[in-house]
Write a structure and sequence with these properties.
The model has no long low-confidence stretch (mean pLDDT 95). The strands form two sheets. Strands 1-2-3-5-4 form a five-stranded mixed β-sheet. Strands 6, 7, 8, 9 and 10 form a five-stranded antiparallel β-sheet that branches. Helix 1 packs across helix 2. The chain has four helices and ten strands, in the order ββββαβαββαβββα. Helix 1 links the parallel strand 4 and strand 5. The chain is α+β, with helices and mostly antiparallel strands. The termini are far apart. It binds adenosine-5'-diphosphate.
Length: 244
Amino acid sequence: MGGRDTDIVLLDENGIRCDGRKVNETRKVTIKAGVLKNANGSAYIEFGDNKILAGVFGPRDVHPKHMANTDTGILRCRYHMSPFSVTERKNPAPSRREIEISKVIKEALEPAVILDQFPRTAVDVFIEILQADGGSRCAALDAASVALADAGIPMRDMVCACAAGKVADTVVLDVNNEEDQAGQADMPVGYMPNLDKVTLIQLDGVLTPEEYKKCVETAIDGCKQVYEIQKKALTDKFFANGEQ
Ligand code: ADP
């Protein structure tokens, strides 16, 4: 973050970013629900050049059995990058970064899912990054939330996610890979739009208290835009013949 010398113009004199976006614009987001036949629920997301699949299984028996909770079902998440998801071959073994992201995604989804009706069971969320381009944890969270809803898991709210950051001393929405590498800060945010609650917030970089507040507000604005696309993915699947 911020340490790499680069010739890239992150923000030009007209306020246009390196990929042609305005400061408050997300990349193009498309989501399709129900893409995997063998999973109970699934979703595919393209978030800019991120391409991500999420598959949900359960509620089902917990293995190993000692992980089972007699009071409630448990949520487990695995975020995994395919070897071909980045320019250099990625070692398929779970990295420290993937273990961290799996944990934060699980913790970001937990406030939304209601698993106390399913004691001794597990709901497994498998996330496969097919192509990564910065902001993959937010895009993964967006797909996972749609996949959970597609699986019929009871939920208090959807979880939608989008990052904001600081690039060329300016707060921008949805930091891309170049901005993440060469910019000053990246803040992924997960948000429940109906309950107005934040379930994930991380910060890589340095912000003033004012910039921090602006980043949170900007990211939440992006989350609300993603929420509309998540809802459309689900209505497109469940009301394919036009009924509402
Ligand atoms: P996020 O994808 O949530 O922004 P990071 O900030 O850790 O997470 O990573 C930013 C980007 O760096 C990723 O989206 C990906 O494009 C790239 N990246 C991550 N891990 C690797 C890796 N092992 N090899 C090459 N690029 C990577």
